[in-house]
Amino acid sequence: MIKARSSRASAARDIVGKLKGEFHILIYDPIYPMRRVVLILAFMPAVVLAQAKEYYGAIAYSLGTGAHGWANDHPSRPAAEKAALANCRKFAKDCKAVVWFKNACGAIAVGSKGYGWGWGEKQAAAEIEALKSCSKHTMGCTVHRHVCTSH
Asked: FRET label pair with 89: which of 7, 71, 142, 145, CA 20 to 30 Å apart?
């Protein structure tokens, strides 16, 4: 029994050693320079995914007038909120940033005596959350704005 275990361990070490040697040849063998290029190209999608861009969006709302402004695909939360507020303030002075989102969607729903907001990975999820939120405060809620980033 002990011999079987040691022979298995020895066999495993041999396989690992051979694999290391094959990998070394694959990378450094001057006869096959294209192997290096192929290997680099094989790992590039992982690098690209690791550097996926983050996009931010926001919606601003004026309770006094019902005006709203929105922004999407900004490099940061503050930038998105600032743009949404600027767009809303073209129509009202009392605007507030009510929802922000990253690589997702946001929505605002308005009812007879209030509003609610929500966000989600998809537009439908954001709208459902906005309607749920609005329904806690008022009746007759409908989605007035939804916006998504280019995620």
From this structure: 142
